[in-house]
Amino acid sequence: MGKGNEALVYLEKMRIVKDRLHAGETAKKLEQMEFAKIMLQDSIAKAEEARLVQEAHEEEVRKEKQTRNYLGGAGLLALLLAGGFYSRWRYVKKSKVIVEKEKDRSNNLLLNILPADIAEELKIYGKAEARDFDMVSILFTDFKGFTEQSAKMSASDLVNEINVCFEAFDGIMDKYGIEKIKTIGDAYMAAGGLPAPTDDSVKNTVLAALGMQAFIIERKAAKSAKGEMAFEMRVGIHTGPVVAGIVGVKKFQYDIWGDTVNTASRIESNGEVGKVNISQATYELLKDDPQFAFESRGKIEAKGKGEMDMYFVSLKSEE
Fold it and tell me: What is the tally of structural domains in the chain?
């Protein structure tokens, strides 16, 4: 059109418009790219957060499992320990019961052999010193014609009869607080006033002797009514000083020594069946007691002792 300058101006304007259009598209693309970047960052952040949450959850689960395992192991260990302690406790308790029973049994056996005070001294010190006693009443018994009668009885019947009598005597000794010393064959020996002296030991010894005779008399009457054989018995008592203590180191035996023992034996051997024979010394200690009645026998020849005054004693209520 021959308008070159004007065409150049429009051409320049057209380029500017195109550049603007391109710039807008570029800006839009940049905005889209920036948005996409932000979205990607958000996705990455959420993914990281989810991963951290998952890891935290897994760690928590692992710790809980580990804790359960620890608690389970500790519980099992505690259960085993408790079972062990319980078994041990039962064993110890059972052992203590057994030990206590054996201890009681040993003590009872020891008390069957020795007086309580002497047994206690022996347990504490391993020995018991011999002691002097100024006034002890020695009691001896003896079955009349024992050798002849025993020949007519079987061994089992003989032992059974002696055992029945001596068991009854033991009970009488306990009743009156008299100390059984020993038995020798058919002889029974006891003492009143030891190991602990008492004011009424002489009286109680005589009461015990009367009780023993009463038992033998009643038993003989009952057995004779059945046509069975039974024993008759002599009893003798003498009062005086003795020495008492333990003999030996094995099979301990509490025994007494002194002339009083020998004299008591002679008083018994010079007695009569069914009677309680006492010496002058015992009589002098009891003669004013209103519970007893005395029968003077005068002077009796005693082997190895010469003539001795002796008395039969009984309860006044029996007269």
Answer: 2
